[in-house]
Amino acid sequence: MTGNHRQLDDGLPHESKSLTSSAGVGPRLSTGSLPSFEGPNFYFLLLLAFLCLANFISVPLLSASRPGLMVVIPATIAAEVGLVAVFGVFSPLVFTTRFVLTVVMGGVLYLGFCLSVIAVSRGEPEAFLILLFGLLISPFIFIAVQAPIWGLRIFYDCQRSSPPQATVTDVAASREPIRLSDLLIGTFMVAVSLALAQLATYVIPADESRTEVLAAVAVAAIAAVLWSCVSVVLPTWLMLAIRRQRMVAVALVGWTAMGSISVLLTIVPFTFDPSAPLVVMLGISVYVFVLCGGLQLARQLGYRLVRRRETHAESSQPAMTDMPFDSIRDN
Question: What is the chain's Cα-based Rg?
Fold first, then answer.
């Protein structure tokens, strides 16, 4: 009788309940056709709104303060570019959906910054030209930032320990290697970005050489590739591929310390401003806080980078496809 009462109270046998609890699967309520704004979607939208608001209020607030504090703006923008680039490569969605969401996210963040600059400049024509120039060259620079991240994607997949509701097509497409169609789309995107970068040369004043501007954009793209390798790919791998949280913390501290020392030794000897070290450290701190904060949010929500060979081994075992990835959880 006791066993029967327990079975009626729990809604399923004790053995089944323990198996279900160990698998991390709980009862699910049907929400019909309404979109769900719970879980990862809610937190990512909240982060996007916070960053957009920060872009909108940063220029008016910092322009009225000390000039050294303006370093917060490029540091924040660089971290936002890194987060959007990582999302565009590793988000577990089909390629077209990732592309559309990446463009929307980048557009929203850039719009917040543009409104902030326009409000401070009071609608001066030069401000519009600068923002238009930045808008036209941003696709080319963004592709340069994403290039090293795609190299990391060759060896790693992004998976979630408790995957949200998704179609079989979305999950399968997110685990596939780079296909020929993806290469064709990528080539088309590079061509369009080059055309926009060349169009940006018509925005600059007439006394500037178009060739020099294109050369400067090319140098900026090369610098973006190198910066992405050190300041985006490496922290992304540290925070999402390493399993133990303590090891992640130690690795991030070492990465931040080495980066700070390198930047200080590169910049400080060439400036006579005594406050330069403090300004550099402020910019690095803001960058690390924003970038690692977004990556930590993804880690807390269960997202991890898993080697493709491990993914293929799991997909070859149908009985285990619905089980959580216990091997990549924190110990």
Answer: 23
Instruction: Please report, as a single letter, which amino acid is at residue 324.
Output: P
Count: domains in the chain: 1
For residue 158, the SS3 value is strand
The phi and psi torsions of 36 (rounded to 5 degrees) equal -100, 130
Largest distance between two CA atoms of the chain = 93
Q: Global pTM?
A: 0.75
User: Residue 73 is which amino acid?
Assistant: I
Instruction: Check if the beta carbon of residue 91 is closer than 8 Å to that of residue 294.
Output: no
| CA atoms of 238 and 153, how far apart (whole Å) | 14
Across the strands, what pairs with 160?
303
Which domain, by its residues, includes 297? 39-328
Domain assignment of residue 23, yes or no? no
Whether 220 and 141 have beta carbons less than 8 Å apart is answered as yes
Q: Where are the alpha helices (DSSP H) in 201-244?
A: 210-228, 234-241
The answer to whether residue 1 sits within a structural domain is: no
Q: Within a domain: residue 50?
A: yes
Closest CA to 251 of 265, 262, 240: 240
Q: Summarize pLDDT for 121-157 with one digit per residue, the tens.
A: 877 888 888 889 999 999 999 999 999 998 898 888 8
Q: Is residue 64 part of a domain?
A: yes
Alpha helices in 268-328 (DSSP H): 276-300, 308-315
Per residue in 43-56, pLDDT tens? 788 888 888 888 88
